[in-house]
Write a structure and sequence with these properties.
alpha/beta; binds zinc ion
């Protein structure tokens, strides 16, 4: 199974904790929440905007994408300190096309799908995906909304998309790698959960952080 979807459903938290990439995805979600607030402070360009779907992909730290720090929140199982983590992140959002007009994001050439934007920005910086420790060829992506049908196909293999998934040949032999995609809200259908996401994005930073830590 190249792509495995995991929903941050509060009712499933206990089972989710045992699933691959849970803590990594949770840290990525927390950093998305902070990245949004940084954006509000320092202006566009840091990869997250309001009224958009946020995404982050775990990558091996390098000069461009330096190691993330532990945020000062109490995540069960993770130390509450500011020491560097073993992984970094590239961010993306569904309004990156708008952001890109103001601040050029290398390797990004349009599109409105948060998960693709994050992956293409990371690949353009020549960043490698971060493998879950002890799980070779298992990778982690966080995206607020469940990937749409096209993005699911794009993540999984070659498609007719204008820009192919640049990591397909780097993740390991096809059929032997697994992409753990963690999301919080369902996409499409009646749009109810998309509206929930927009409301959540507009809430205060501390409310978002506490929600992620306690309920996701
Ligand atoms: Zn999509």
């Amino acid at each position: 199974m190249p792509v495995v979807l995991h929903k941050f459903d509060p009712a499933q938290q206990q089972q989710n904790q045992a699933s691959p990439g849970y803590l990594i995805a949770k840290v990525l979600a927390l950093h998305c929440a902070d990245q949004y607030d940084l954006n509000q402070t320092f202006g566009v360009g840091s990869g997250i905007a309001a009224w958009s779907c946020w995404a982050a992909v775990a990558i091996t730290p390098n000069a461009v994408h330096q190691a993330l720090l532990h945020l000062q929140v109490n995540i069960p199982g993770a130390p509450a300190n500011f020491n560097p983590l073993a992984f970094s992140s590239a961010f993306g959002n569904s309004q990156m096309g708008t952001v890109n007009r103001t601040v050029n994001v290398p390797g990004f050439d349009g599109g409105a799908h948060a998960e693709r934007a994050a992956i293409r920005a990371a690949a353009a910086a020549n960043s490698a995906q971060y493998q879950i420790p002890g799980n070779p060829h298992h990778y982690v992506l966080f995206v607020q909304l469940e990937p749409c049908q096209h993005c699911h196909g794009w993540l999984t293999g070659p498609t007719r998309a204008r820009v192919a998934n640049p990591w397909l040949n780097r993740m390991g032999p096809h059929g032997q790698w697994t992409f753990h995609v963690w999301y919080r809200w369902f996409y499409g259908a009646n749009g109810f959960e998309t509206a929930q996401m927009a409301l959540w994005n507009a809430s205060q930073r501390h409310q978002r952080v506490i929600d992620i830590v306690q309920n996701w």
